[in-house]
Structures are given as C-alpha cells and as structure tokens.
Amino acid sequence: MATKAYKRRTLAHCSGPIKWAMKDSILFNPVFWLIFALTLGLMPYTPEPHVWEKLKWIFSGAQGMQPLDWFDFFLHGTPWALLILSFACSFYKK
Fold it and tell me: Where are the domains of the chain?
C-alpha cells in the first residue's frame, strides 16, 4: 500500500523530460522520428541506403525477394512510416 502512495507522489511532482514526455507523447514528436528515420531507416549508408535499395527492388517487380528481405524492408521502412504519421498527427492537432 505504501508503494502505491509513493508512486503517485513521485509522478505528481515530476519535472523536466519526464513531465514533457507525459504532456506531449514522444510518439507524436516528428523530431524524434526524423532522427530515428535518418539513422535506422537509412542504414547502411553506402553504397546506397538500404530502404532505397529495397524500394527499387519492389518497384521493379520484387523478383526473388525472400521473407527475410520483406522483413528487412519492414524494419527499415517503419521509421519513415512513423515519421509521416507523426507529421500528419501534428498537423491534425493544430
């Protein structure tokens, strides 16, 4: 019983980044998703970004794509989809 009261008291008196994260969810923060998309979404950077290579492969007919390639496209494409979603949500809020 004492731990519940302690948790309530600490959440009520939080400040700084924790209060910001509770106020404006990081899930709808386009800056977070932009950084995430530029790192995980584009890696490896050379010889060309991985998601770009997969997109070219899919638009050319996806001949020979294995399930691992589709998973890889999903992994590298998710940050870009979430970035677009967060931009849409931020414009919808305003």
Answer: 29-94
